[in-house]
Design brief:
By secondary structure, the protein is α+β, with helices and mostly antiparallel strands. The chain is 53% helix and 15% strand. The protein has a five-stranded antiparallel β-sheet with strand order 4-3-2-1-5, with no helix packed on it. Helix 1 (10-46) packs antiparallel against helix 2. The longest helix is centred in the middle third of the chain and has 38 residues, at 81-118. The radius of gyration is 31 Å and the shape is elongated.
Length: 193
């Protein structure tokens, strides 16, 4: 075909053919997605499937179509599949390590939101975090709740004046005993400390 065209168009063909292939790939992906949506809608109406199920299948299919189209486009541009796979696995490994490293922090932040919304205890309450039903646990007066820790001021005779910083996710893993009035707490706590 190059032989039949003027020489000034040869350089344009170098860019025009891949651009046309990319446009055809996008058009094919769009048409495939459109046909699949209509087909899924008809199947859903015929079998009276729940709309949530149809929506989920539709989104999954759209994701697969556009991901495939992206891979085809990258192949047209000249990116090799082995390079893409290496990059993907590298990013996935780094993401997994980062998520694992940040999991405890994210868990504590989420539990802080739960503490503020469910209110298992409040500031200045006297609480005890029990290991199990029989064993005594960590106890004291709540003096601060931040994004990561809840700070308890110990009030028993052995450690009076010290503070405990307990990760907020611990309050959802163990049993919490609460007294609003410190005089009712065991050990005869007097006043607010």
């Amino acid at each position: 075909m190059k032989d039949h065209l003027p020489t000034w168009t040869h350089e344009w063909l170098h860019y025009g053919v891949p651009a046309l292939q990319i446009l055809l790939t996008l058009l094919a992906a769009w048409l495939l997605r459109l046909v699949a949506r209509r087909l899924m809608r008809r199947v859903g109406e015929h079998y009276t499937l729940p709309p949530e199920m149809i929506m989920g299948v539709r989104r999954a299919f759209s994701f697969m179509v556009y991901t495939t189209a992206l891979l085809v486009i990258l192949s047209i541009v000249g990116v090799k599949a082995s390079v893409l796979w290496t990059a993907f696995t590298g990013f996935a490994a780094v993401g997994a390590v980062a998520f694992f490293a940040a999991w405890s922090v994210l868990s504590n932040i989420f539990c802080t939101l739960l503490i503020f919304t469910t209110r298992p205890f409040r500031l200045h309450d006297y609480i005890e975090l029990l290991e199990n039903g029989e064993k005594p646990g960590l106890k004291g007066r709540v003096i601060d709740v931040n994004l990561i820790y809840t700070t308890l001021q110990e009030t028993d005779g052995h450690h009076e004046g010290t503070v405990l910083q307990i990760p907020n996710n611990m309050f959802f893993q163990r049993t919490v005993r609460r007294w609003r009035d410190p005089s009712q707490a065991p050990g005869g706590i007097q006043g607010d400390g």
